[in-house]
Design goal:
Helix content is 73%, strand content 0%. The protein is mostly helical. The protein is elongated and about 70 Å long. The protein is built from seven helices and no strands.
């Protein structure tokens, strides 16, 4: 009996973080982070972007014209999707790193804007500013982890060049 060739979906799934063997044993402690929490965070970014586009960002609308907040919402949607793709397919780690860097910058800028508003017109925005600052922790940590993984790959490549073939 002949075996059917794998479908396109099966071939695609082989390259994802959810595929068997996608996470080496040395990184097993990070498996739930990579397979659950980072993808959920990125889906949350898309959701936040949709809310920003459809319902606005009242705090930023006090500082900027409406088109800025709508653009920021679309940016979050695009970045969330890019980061999700980068987490889902480890070969796209550069895409994730670039996206997470911009997300981090956006979140820091938003937190600073809220802090300014809390100091000038609405002290209750200080709480939201603190929560937004907390939302910066996961992408900052992930960028650090991506940097460590990049250094490990470079070291392995350098060692492979130095080791003579048998």
């Amino acid at each position: 009996m002949t075996q059917k060739p794998p479908s396109r979906l099966q071939r695609l799934l082989r390259h994802t973080i959810w595929a068997q063997g996608a996470i080496p044993p040395s990184e097993w402690k990070y498996r739930n982070l990579k397979r659950v929490w980072l993808p959920l965070y990125d889906v949350g970014l898309v959701y936040a972007g949709v809310l920003a586009v459809t319902r606005g960002l009242p705090a930023l609308e006090l500082l900027f014209p409406l088109w800025v907040t709508i653009t920021l919402g679309w940016l979050l949607i695009i970045l969330g999707a890019a980061c999700f793709a980068g987490v889902a397919v480890p070969r796209l780690w550069r895409l994730e790193g670039s996206g997470k860097s911009i997300v981090l910058a956006v979140l820091v800028a938003y937190s600073v804007a809220l802090t300014i508003l809390a100091d000038t017109s609405s002290p209750t925005r200080g709480f939201v500013s603190a929560i937004t600052a907390l939302a910066c922790i996961l992408p900052a940590w992930r960028l650090d982890l991506l940097g460590e993984e990049r250094r490990e790959r470079a070291l392995e490549a350098a060692l492979a060049k130095e080791t003579p073939a048998p």
